[in-house]
Structures are given as C-alpha cells and as structure tokens.
Design a protein that fits this description.
It is a single chain. The protein is an alpha+beta fold. It folds into four domains: about 120 residues, Jelly Rolls, CATH 2.60.120.10; about 120 residues, CBS-domain (Roll), CATH 3.10.580; about 150 residues, Beta Polymerase, domain 2 (2-Layer Sandwich); about 150 residues, Four Helix Bundle (Hemerythrin (Met), subunit A) (Up-down Bundle), CATH 1.20.120. Helices cover about 45% and strands about 15% of the residues. The protein contains 23 helices and 21 strands. The strands form six sheets. It has a four-stranded antiparallel sheet with strand order 1-8-3-6. Helix 6 links the parallel strand 9 and strand 10. Helix 19 packs antiparallel against helix 20 and helix 21 packs antiparallel against helix 22. The relative contact order is 0.07.
Length: about 625
C-alpha cells in the first residue's frame, strides 16, 4: 500500500460512522489490522457464501451489492461497510458484491471486528447482525441466554429463514382412526413421542396428543378400548413443508397449540412441536401466548403482556424482518384479547346472540409493535335486541377494552373501540355505516374509512365479517369517485423530503430534529396499499399482502409493488430497532428517530425508500386527480 493509500484508509476509517465510535488507540490498532485490496472494475469481492468471511470498507471507488432473490442493487461508495456483521451477511441473505469501478478496499477478519465490538459496545449497534459463520459469542460473552430471552440472535434468525421441513426429525408416527385409545398410548410410549397422527388412505384425519390422553381419557374415565378418533382433534391446523418455520411458530402462538402436522401437498411428512422450536431458542412467542391463555385474572394478563417489549427486543436482536415481527407481536395482542373475552363470558355468561370481536387498524393488519393503542369494534347478529341484549354486550366490551388498556394497549384517543356504543352494532347497521362513508366521503367519513376498512376477525362468529366485507368490496371496486377521495386523504401523509430531495427533520414540537417513522414512514405506504386493495376488491388487511395482490391484479406493476414492500420492510425495521434500543435503555418506545442513529448506508437507503413512496403517491394523484 502506498503512503497515499494508507492516508486514504486512515481517513476513511475516521469518517466511517460506526468505526469512528472507537477511541484513537483502537483506530490505530484497526488500521494496522486492515488488509488492503485493490480491484479493477467488474471484479467479484464476495459471493453470498463469502460475505461473512470479512468486513469490508470501501476506501476509494464504488462497489455494487446485489440481491438477485429480491432484485435489489445498491451502490456503495467511499466510507460504506459491507460483509461480516452487516445485513448483507445475515443468515439466509443472498447478497453478492462486485466492483463497479476500480476500487481500493480494506477488510478485517471476524475476530478483529468481534474484539472491536467487545471493547466498544456502541459499535455493535451498527455491526450487530449475526452471520452465517457461527453463533459463537464475541469475546467476553458467556453465550448464555438472558432470563426471559427467546435465545441467541443467530438461532432466532434460523427460525425466520429455515423451512419447516428442516425441523422434522423423524418419520411420521401414524395410526388409523379405528385404532384403540390403548394402542395409541402404547405406540406413543414405545416411540417416545407426545403425539400420533391419524391417517387413512394417505390423508390426514386427525391428531392425538398426550394432553388428549390426560384430559379426555384419564380425567373422564373413558374406556381405553374405544376408537381413538373419539378423542382426537379432527381436521387439525397444518403447515406446508415448504413454508418458513416462522409460519409454524405463528400458528402455534395464535391458536395456543403445541403440535402441528406438516404436509407436502396432502402427504403427511411428520409433526413439529413447540419443543422442536425450543431447540432453536425461538419459542418465546409460542409460550408467551400459552402463558396468556393460562391467566385467570386481568393482573395475570398484565404481567404476561408486559413481556411483549422484551419479545420485540429479542426479535430485533435476531434480525427478524419487520413483517415477521409485526405478525408475532400482533399474535400476542390477539391472545390477550381472546383471553379477556373468555374471562368476560365466564363472568357474564354465554352471549345471548352471535357476535364477532373485530380488530381494526394495526392489529387488523398484523403490523403492531410494542407501542400500540387499541382500535376494535363488535359486529352483532341482526337478531340483536337492544332492550334484551344491550347491557350484556356493553359490559363485555367495557371489560375487554379496559383490560386491554391495563395491559398496555391504551384506549383509543378517538374512542374507536367496541366499548363505544357507535362501534358495537348489528351487521345491518355496519352495512349502513359503510354505505354512507362510501357514498358521502366527507373528511370524517374518510378518516373512519381508513380505520374500519382494515378489519380482521378475532373471536366469535367470523361469518359476520365475511358478509360485511363482501358487501364493502362490491361497492368500492371500480368506484373511481370514492377512490379519488381516498387518494386525496392518503396524500395528507407525505414522506419527509425537502425541496432538493433530502430527508427533512421536525423543527419543533416534543421531538425536534427527528423523523416520525410511523406517520411519515409506514402510514403513507399503508394508505397506498389500502387504495389498491379497495380498487381491486382484495379482502386482505395486511399491507404486504395487499401489495402482492395489487401486483397480481395490475393495480400496480410487480416491480413497483416490490419497491413498496421493500420500503415498508426497511422503514419498519428501523422503527422496530429504534424501539428495541429504547426498551433496552429503559425508555418508553416511540416512533421518533434521530438521523444520528443511522449509518450513512441506512440514511441513503431511507432516502431511497421515501422517494419510492413519493413517486407512487404522485402516480395515484395523477390517476385520480381529475375526480377529486
């Protein structure tokens, strides 16, 4: 390395946001440990399998990171990092790196970077992602899992990316439905398993667990010569073998189950259990949901719900996607809601007519974070009689909403909750509401539409929402005048970009010099996706799913839908990581991010995400502007 190149290297290290957090002695040591590389344009720096081998710093020239799985290309310039410890080397990532121009790079081995992170913990914020190399703790770490943790970050990431097929340890243990209860118990004992699959003519019939034997046979004194199908769970929930293991964890968390059959088409491959995922150290969501269902008091639910912040912190440390985190955190909210309804019904007695508790807003979209208020409503059967049934549902709704508030899901400031009489109505009344909002889209109607067009059934008679949703979509699909008003309302939330395309921060208020990652970041994308869903008649509530459907129905091109999904994921990940850092430091999580928290790479990527959103807002404005 020439003297000029050595000077350039030292200057690049000093200017790099993460590395500059070290003291001068450490920077001297880091400079001495650097391995300089000079490459011509078009040369490969690292394949996806090699990204974890070194941390690279661009000293001079340009390097292009490419992820062919998601069709993403990012140009890195002097001062940018890639490789070990960054997102590009996370397990399951498929980034490759190639020089765009002649370039000078510096690289360090993982051992050097691990020592640097150990000596300067602040650097771990920027270089904290586990890689495909190992899950070996950095120097000075014991490798033990903290109390209440869901396990090591690397193992959590395994669960997010590994296929369910990888969790299957043995061939399925099966019996025909006609086998006796005794034969089933004997087989479970002989095989050392906690469940047996009932299969007939190569089709799954049901599942029997050790809990079924205990609760349905022993406790009730049932004849063990009876056919086992009498105590089985028939037509059980299943997962497809090709899906990520995360899907199995989410299914268990949402439905409080611990055994899930795995299918390849209709063929039974085996069974995955909560214990299988315990070995991946990532089942806190499953067991937290199970803990919720065991509670018999609101105080117990409060204690369980308090663990959600730690859960989100663990997921952030694991490098879990914002999409996955939203689903998992929301699953716990669902569990708390259902348990409150169960406890309420235990006090008040069975509901006098059919009803459905419905989530709205972020819970409906499965996009909650550890900081969420509650938006919900009740759809009652048209058999509802206010004189006979009104008091029952009023008490039940208040019990649940107050219980959610005690658990940290604060009362909606706009009172959009089932405890408010307006939002606890028969299905026919709800149809009238939506008819009025669609036909007379004044500002209040548009505001309500943004909340109540995002609905998801939580507990009760789900057909009530199915009928209502079908009625709504039949009136919005192709309704250009209403959609124009929805677009106009959506354009009230713009990404924070200034006149020259740079990110702008707030100038005053309670959070000066920050950006609001919710109202200026994710909300504009959520609003766009809602318009696409209503225009295309799509029933999905989740924003990522809405964008996928929108691409299939040509409401938006597949490329632009992918851009929006990537923007949503990136902004959401920044928001979750920001809240996790606040939780770790004892602060209350919020959505207000200082740009000082971001690396140069993240700032550039965030600006690109904002430009994607602003561009698509402009497209919708032009499409519907003449009708507004």
């Amino acid at each position: 390395m020439t003297a000029t190149e050595a000077s350039q290297l030292r200057q690049a290290i000093h200017q790099q946001r993460a590395l500059s957090l070290a003291d001068e002695a450490a920077l001297d040591w880091l400079t001495a440990q650097a391995q300089p590389i000079t490459l011509a344009a078009g040369q490969t720096v690292a394949t996806p399998q090699q990204q974890h081998l070194y941390l690279h710093l661009v000293v001079r020239g340009e390097v292009e990171l490419e992820d062919p799985d998601h069709d993403i290309r990012i140009t890195l310039r002097a001062g940018e990092l890639f490789g070990y410890g960054t997102r590009a080397s996370a397990k399951g990532a498929s980034w490759s790196s190639n020089t765009r121009t002649d370039a000078l790079l510096a690289r360090w081995t993982p051992a050097v970077i691990d020592q640097l992170r150990h000596d300067h913990p602040a650097i771990a914020f920027f270089l904290g992602h586990r890689t495909a190399r190992t899950d070996t703790p950095a120097p000075g770490q014991s490798g033990q899992t903290p109390a209440g943790s869901s396990g090591t970050p690397g193992n959590n990431l395994n669960l997010m990316t590994a296929s369910i097929r990888a969790l299957i340890k043995k061939e399925p243990i099966t019996l025909p439905p006609s086998a006796t209860i005794q034969q089933t118990a004997q087989l479970m004992k002989a095989k050392g398993v906690s469940s047996v699959l009932l299969v007939e003519q190569d089709h799954l019939f049901g599942v029997v667990t050790d809990r079924d034997l205990r609760n349905r046979v022993v406790a009730n004194g049932l004849d063990i010569q009876q056919p086992v199908h009498q105590i089985a769970t028939l037509a059980p929930f299943t997962v497809d073998a090709a899906k990520p293991a995360f899907d199995a964890m989410l299914l268990m968390a949402r439905h409080n189950i611990h055994h899930v059959p795995v299918l390849d088409g209709t063929r039974v491959l085996g069974m995955v259990t909560a214990t299988d995922m315990t070995e991946r150290h990532s089942t806190s969501a499953v067991y937290l949901a199970g803990e919720v269902y065991k509670q018999t008091t609101v105080d117990g639910l409060v204690a369980s719900a308090a663990k959600v912040k730690q859960l989100q912190q663990n997921l952030a440390a694991a490098g879990a996607s914002a999409l996955s985190t939203g689903h998992i955190v929301t699953a716990i909210t669902d569990a708390v809601t259902v348990r409150l309804l169960q406890l309420g019904e235990a006090q008040l007695g069975p509901a006098p007519v059919d009803y459905l508790w419905v989530a709205a807003g972020s819970q409906a979209r499965s996009e909650q974070t550890a900081k969420s208020d509650q938006d919900n409503c009740m759809i009652l059967s048209d058999d509802f009689d206010p004189a006979q049934h009104g008091e029952y549902f009023s008490q039940l709704a208040k019990w649940v909403c107050d219980g959610l508030d005690a658990c940290g899901y604060i009362h909606c400031p706009g009172e959009m909750m089932a405890m408010t009489d307006t939002w606890r109505q028969p299905k026919a009344k709800w149809i009238q509401y939506f008819d009025r909002w669609i036909n007379t889209p004044d500002p209040k109607a548009l505001m309500l539409s943004c909340v109540f067009f995002d609905l998801r059934a939580i507990h009760g008679a789900t057909a009530l929402l199915d009928d209502l949703r079908a009625s709504i979509l039949s009136k919005t699909q192709g309704n250009s005048l209403f959609l124009a008003h929805m677009v106009g309302n959506a354009l009230k939330h713009y990404p924070p970009l200034g006149m020259f395309g740079n990110i702008t921060v707030s100038k005053g208020g309670d959070h000066p010099k920050t950006i609001d990652l919710k109202h200026s970041g994710t909300v504009p994308i959520i609003d766009l996706a809602r318009v696409y869903a209503l225009a295309g008649g799509h029933a999905a509530a989740n924003t990522d799913e809405r964008l996928t459907h929108a691409a299939h129905s040509n409401e938006i091109s597949a490329e632009r839908a992918r851009d929006l999904r990537d923007a949503l994921e990136f902004i959401g990940s920044l928001r979750i990581a920001h809240q996790a850092r606040q939780t770790a430091s004892g602060q209350s999580p919020d959505n207000h991010l200082s740009l000082d928290e971001l690396s140069n790479f993240e700032r550039a990527h965030l600006k690109d995400a904002f430009h994607v959103v602003k561009g698509l807002q402009s497209v919708l404005s032009q499409r519907y502007g003449g009708r507004m």
